[in-house]
């Protein structure tokens, strides 16, 4: 009986956190959408290596996610957001620095980063399933897992179809998930 009360209290607290920080969530989603678009477009139209673009994009989006997590410090979902931000930042640094020899090792590193990112997003979606728009995180997590599988399955790559292109799609979906849950939280707050 007390478990139901705790779950209900936690759901209300989560709803308040999303409602109070909806603008930060929209900002984070927008950064991820921009990052995904850059990861897709820039390698196709410039001489900048795709790994440098993807690494830079992940570092920037990871840092924004860490800042956003700090805004939700007193919430149980803080750890999920912080883990996603730290993962993206560290993964971006590793991809940018390219410490492993060869395209195969770099592609596998990107695949591992997106697999872990996808699993973390799915776990987060399950954690906040009582919130409007939670399914966007579930979809985004599955997209990240599909991206990871595609990265491994499609070796080697041509110049026009790079790991950054595929990863950019995952970042676009993650950004849309943040914007969707933020706007759903804001709409739910306005209707109450």
TrEMBL record:
The keyword Transmembrane applies. The keyword Membrane applies. Keywords: Membrane, Transmembrane, Transmembrane helix. It holds the Pfam family DUF308. The chain crosses the membrane at residues 21-42, 48-66, 78-97, 103-126, 133-153, 165-184. InterPro entries: Acid_resist_chaperone_HdeD (IPR052712), DUF308_memb (IPR005325). GO terms for cellular component: plasma membrane. Signal peptide: none annotated. It comes from the Bacteria. This is HdeD family acid-resistance protein.
């Amino acid at each position: 009986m007390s478990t139901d009360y705790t779950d209900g209290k936690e759901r209300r607290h989560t709803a308040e956190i999303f409602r109070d920080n909806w603008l930060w969530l929209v900002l984070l989603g927008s950064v991820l959408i921009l990052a995904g678009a850059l990861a897709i477009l820039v390698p196709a139209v410039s001489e900048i290596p795709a790994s440098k673009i993807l690494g830079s994009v992940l570092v920037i989006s990871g840092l924004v996610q860490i800042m956003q997590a700090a805004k939700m410090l007193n919430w149980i979902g803080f750890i999920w957001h912080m883990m996603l931000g730290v993962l993206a930042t560290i993964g971006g640094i590793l991809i940018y620095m390219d410490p492993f020899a060869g395209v195969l090792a770099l592609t596998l590193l990107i695949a591992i980063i997106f697999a872990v990112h996808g699993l973390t997003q799915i776990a987060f979606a399950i954690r906040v399933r009582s919130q409007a728009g939670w399914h966007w995180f579930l979809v985004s997590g599955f997209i990240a897992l599909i991206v990871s599988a595609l990265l491994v399955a499609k070796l080697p790559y041509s110049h026009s179809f790079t790991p950054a292109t595929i990863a950019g799609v995952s970042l676009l979906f993650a950004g849309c998930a943040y914007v969707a849950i933020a706007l759903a939280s804001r709409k739910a707050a306005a209707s109450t």
